[in-house]
Structures are given as structure tokens and as C-alpha cells.
């Protein structure tokens, strides 16, 4: 009696099926992560705007209890205060260089940025302690600077 040796292994079809399943699963995961990236960018914008508020308060305390238009300045200007400049750069990176609205004088400031997940919404902070998401944008209302 002759014994036939059989070699075990995967056939080409089995390997192709496994590769196809891995491809489908990776496509599902990548699609699901798209929303997470957008939410992460929104969270970064909120975090940086709250950090801006802290930096503006430090500026206020270090400069005789006064704000300055330098905390806003032009976003591309060299005049933007060194205390707040890093926040501008980080917000611009997160929101894709969408406009940042910033208003300031010696008594008050307000700054807002467009949300990546919904361009009709803004996150705004001001010197009065307001920090919120909605349609409020940093602006001058009846001579007062605030999120409105």
C-alpha cells in the first residue's frame, strides 16, 4: 500500500477571500473615522479659544488692567501679541484658515471661530466669561464688545 502525502495550506481563492474581507473592514473603519477627525478639529478650536481667553487675561494683568487691540491685530500681522499669537496659529490650522473674528479695545475683547463640522456655527469667548457654541460671533454691539 502506497501512502500519499498531502500538503496542507491555503488555496489562492481562500487567500483572496481573506484579503477582500480585510479590505472591506478597513474601508468601514476609515469611513467611521472621518467624523471623529471633524469632531477632534472642533474640540481643538474650542480648547484653543479657551486658552486664548487665559492668555488675554494674563495680558490684561501684565499691562495695567487693560486689553489692547494688539491681542487681536491682523492674523497675519507681526503686531499680534506674542501671548495670543500661538492660539491664532493653532486655530487656523484646525479650522482650515476659516476667518477668525476678533474684536478688542482697552476694556474688552471677544474672539470666535467657525466650527469645522458646521460652518454656520461658531465658538466664541469673551472677557465677560462667555464661552459657547452657536451662531454668536465676536462683534461690537451698541459700543460693547461681546459674543452676540
From TrEMBL:
GO terms for cellular component: membrane; type II protein secretion system complex. InterPro entries: Bac_GSPG_pilin (IPR000983), N_methyl_site (IPR012902), Pilin-like (IPR045584). It comes from Candidatus Vogelbacteria bacterium RIFOXYD1_FULL_44_32. The lineage of its organism: Bacteria, Candidatus Vogeliibacteriota. The chain crosses the membrane at residues 12-36. It comes from the Bacteria. It is found in: Membrane. NCBIfam families: IV_pilin_GFxxxE. Coiled coil: none annotated. GO terms for biological process: protein secretion by the type II secretion system. It is a single-pass membrane protein. Gene3D superfamilies: Glycoprotein, Type 4 Pilin. SUPFAM superfamilies: Pili subunits. This is Type II secretion system protein GspG C-terminal domain-containing protein. Keywords: Membrane, Methylation, Transmembrane, Transmembrane helix.
Amino acid at each position: 500500500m502506497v501512502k500519499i502525502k498531502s500538503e496542507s495550506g491555503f488555496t489562492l481563492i481562500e487567500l483572496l477571500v481573506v484579503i477582500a474581507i480585510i479590505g472591506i473592514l478597513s474601508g468601514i473603519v476609515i469611513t467611521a473615522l472621518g467624523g471623529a477627525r471633524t469632531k477632534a478639529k472642533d474640540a481643538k478650536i474650542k480648547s484653543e479659544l479657551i486658552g486664548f481667553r487665559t492668555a488675554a487675561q494674563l495680558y490684561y494683568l501684565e499691562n495695567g488692567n487693560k486689553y489692547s487691540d494688539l491681542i487681536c491685530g491682523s492674523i497675519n500681522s507681526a503686531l499680534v501679541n506674542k501671548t495670543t499669537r500661538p492660539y491664532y496659529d493653532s486655530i487656523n490650522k484646525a479650522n482650515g484658515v476659516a476667518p477668525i473674528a476678533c474684536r478688542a479695545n482697552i476694556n474688552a475683547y471677544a474672539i470666535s471661530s467657525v466650527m469645522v463640522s458646521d460652518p454656520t456655527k461658531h465658538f466664541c469667548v469673551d472677557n465677560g466669561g462667555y464661552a459657547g457654541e452657536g451662531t454668536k460671533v465676536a462683534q461690537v454691539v451698541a459700543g460693547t464688545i461681546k459674543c452676540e
